[in-house]
Automatic annotation (TrEMBL):
Its EC number is 4.3.99.3. GO terms for molecular function: 4 iron, 4 sulfur cluster binding; carbon-nitrogen lyase activity; magnesium ion binding; S-adenosyl-L-methionine binding. This is 7-carboxy-7-deazaguanine synthase. Pathway: Purine metabolism; 7-cyano-7-deazaguanine biosynthesis. Binds 1 S-adenosyl-L-methionine per subunit. Binds 1 [4Fe-4S] cluster. The cluster is coordinated with 3 cysteines and an exchangeable S-adenosyl-L-methionine. Residues 16-202 form the Radical SAM core domain. HAMAP family: QueE (MF_00917). Substrate binds at residues 10-12, 25, 68. It comes from Methanoculleus formosensis. Catalyzes the complex heterocyclic radical-mediated conversion of 6-carboxy-5,6,7,8-tetrahydropterin (CPH4) to 7-carboxy-7-deazaguanine (CDG), a step common to the biosynthetic pathways of all 7-deazapurine-containing compounds. Homodimer.
Amino acid sequence: MIVSEIFRSLQGEGKNQGRACTFIRLVGCNLRCAWCDTPYAREGGEEMSVGEVLDRVWLLRGTHICITGGEPLLQREEVLKLLEKFRHHGYTVEIETNGTCDFRDMQPYASICMDVKCPSSGEKSDLSLLPYITPRDCVKFVVADEDDLLYARAVMSRCEIRGEVFISPVEGVDYRAVADYIVEENLPARFQVQLHKILGIK
């Protein structure tokens, strides 16, 4: 598999926010989101075997893993092999995905954090995957303006989402306005700031 980086940090988003975590960032993405904070992961990287990734993760210690990108599910076969190994060794794994690739074959091994792309991102997610989100998974809307909030509300109203839902303002957006909207519209979602941006970490 082609790996951009493997590192330890705090999880900045989703249901595991604030948890110490080992990140495996894979190279390649099929989207060009306006708010992407890891454009360097679109290309380059290092070719690594599943065994080499396992060795690097073991050296960093910790039992919680986040496989991210780019879009990690573009390397589907390699990710599945890695997930099987992680389960064998007792790791807890989360996959961050942009919602354009089917994740159902990953769910026996990992929880899913699906980032539903809002209009300001300039991209789209596959909303037909939302019914397959389970209570152990989560969904995230990164919002920049009122149109994004209206879109998130519309998606939540017409799609069954059984996992927890988070609304995260883009860095620099008026946090209070987003929080007020969630309260006023009684949205079935949790307000969440991007912790890694606030702390200045990966």
